[in-house]
Each structure stands twice: as structure tokens, then as C-alpha cells.
Amino acid sequence: xxxxxxxxxxxxxxxxxxxxxxxxxxxxxxxxxxxxxxxxxxxxxxxxxxxxxxxxxxxxxxxxxxxxxxxxxxxxxxxxxxxxxxxxxxxxxxxxxxxxxxxxxxxxxxxxxxxxxxxxxxxxxxxxxxxxxxxxxxxxxxxxxxxxxxxxxxxxxxxxxxxxxxxxxxxxxxxxxxxxxxxxxxxxxxxxxxxxxxxxxxxxxxxxxxxxxxxxxxxxxxxxxxxxxxxxxxxxxxxxxxxxxxxxxxxxxxxxxxxxxxxxxxxxxxxxxxxx
Amino acid sequence: xxxxxxxxxxxxxxxxxxxxxxxxxxxxxxxxxxxxxxxxxxxxxxxxxxxxxxxxxxxxxxxxxxxxxxxxxxxxxxxxxxxxxxxx
Lengths: 276, 88
Hints:
heterodimer, A: 276 residues, alpha+beta, five-stranded mixed beta sheet, five-stranded mixed β-barrel, 18 strands, globular, B: 88 residues, two-stranded antiparallel ribbon, 5 strands
């Protein structure tokens, strides 16, 4: 992926193989992807030909990086046979524990708080999976951790510069650092809020239903692989069979973030011991 | 209800995960999770067996009278039919 994401600057087309793409829109078709942002950035990738970035006059490098690391990275991953999912993750004992949920569910904050419990971060917001072999392999994160000022104060992560002038988040370095090597996926955990902390395994049907979250990574994967509804279902079923999944209920008010993170850290360590 | 019961395979996609069979209605997008007896009945629907043959098979398997099972089985078959998964 690092090789595929190397880019050159230039002019991007306004269509993909004759299919027009309006400003503010994106299209993934076959082995090509085009994104044209309203702020004037353009990103065009075709497998085997690399990535072109078109920069508007006075381009903001932070904004360029945000687009590059979000939809563009996921699209390039999909075109190259990988599966990005909407999750943040930590690594422990040579395996990855990934947390997923809707925006605002607390994925980044939990991962940052787990850093304060001694668990290094594996990725933030997007987890890229390689499903081609036996075990499901996670590729190391490509995004820097981003936290709100409140999350920074709660998690012990070290604040860096502001993400952009328009976003009230800061880049941050997690307290236990990051892991940068591919590792197998141990668990995919769906985040929920509730009074009593608990982790419960999900049955097959529940796993399948929950894998249907509407997120741009899902749409890109379906477009890249030209999947119809039945094929999407079978592809998710394959993932549901191969990956252990749980639901994690935890209190998620500011005064209980540390308590919840401690609960999750103990659960992860116990899961690691149980495997040995 | 004397004819064979058939699965409407064009209407759904099916997969097995551990002890469950999960069906997706391709039209509505609804999921159906079949476990235990529900899965057993689903597997007995083979395009040849009638409602009575399915009842007889279940009665043998669970050592029960077919009449005792009939209300639940009929209700379940009606659900599958309403969901567009089988034809009777």
C-alpha cells in the first residue's frame, strides 16, 4: 500500500473511462478511482499507473493529507484486493483487537485511553484487512490518531498540531506508541454504551447483521468488486465465519472513560492469556 | 397443503455460520437467522417432502406426536411463505 500511495502532482481527468465525475463527487470503477473535492483537490488512481494529486492554488497540505488518508487510501486498498473497515484498533500479544461503531461511538478515544493502560495503537478510524490467506491479516495503520481536546485530556495521549483550521481535533501520539507490522485479527468488537461493562460474543446472524454498517469503506469495497446484494452477503458471511466478534457495553461519560478503558484492557489481556 | 414444499432460491442468499443458517431476502434485505428446530425444518424442505412428510420426520427425530408439532410447524411454514422464501 505504501508503494501504491506514492503520488505525483498533476492534472486529474473529470471522468473515469467516460463516466463523468462532478466536483464534490467520487467514483470507483474497475481498477480506477477519481475524487474531485469542492475545495479544488483532485485524486486519480489507476492500478499499475499510480496516483495523481491535483492541488488547487494555495493548497492546504493538511487538507490534502486528510483526503489522501481517508477515501483515497480506502479506494486504493479496495482496488488492490484489500478490505478497509471502519475501526480503530490496538495490538496485544501479537494480535489485533479492533473496535468499530458509528461516528462518535468512541473508537479513537478508547484506543487512546487503552494506550494509557499499556496497549499500543494499531490504527485509527480505518483498519485495512487482507482476506486472501488463511487468517485475516491487518495492515498497520496509515492515519495519525486524531482526538478532540476533551479526549486528549481524558486519555494521556500527547497532543500535536491541530488537524486543520476547520476541524476541532488535534493529532496525537498514543501513550504506548504504535505497532507498525502486519498482525492477525483477534477480535472485531462493536461498541455500545451502557451502565454495566460487559463483553458478549456475537452469534453468526448477529455478526452478519452488524457488518452491514453504512460507511464509505463498504461502498468502495462493493464498487471495486462489482458486488450485487447476494455477493455482498456472501462476502460478509465469509468475514463473519473467520473473525471472532463481540459487543462491548461500557459507560462512556467523561468521568468513566478511564474505568471503561481499564475494563477493556483487562479483557484483552485475559483473551491473550486464554489463547496460550 | 399436500404438495411438496419448495425453496424459492432466487429470492434469497443462504449461508451457514457455526450452528446457524442465515438467510438474506434479496428483495427486502431482511435477515433470517435459523437455529435448532427452525434450521432442521429448513433443511427438510427439499422440494420433495410435503408438509405432512416434514411433520413425520420431525416427530421421529424428536420422539413426539406429529399432531403436537403441527401448530408450530404450520406457523413457521406460513412465516417462511410470507417472507417469500418457500412455496407451498
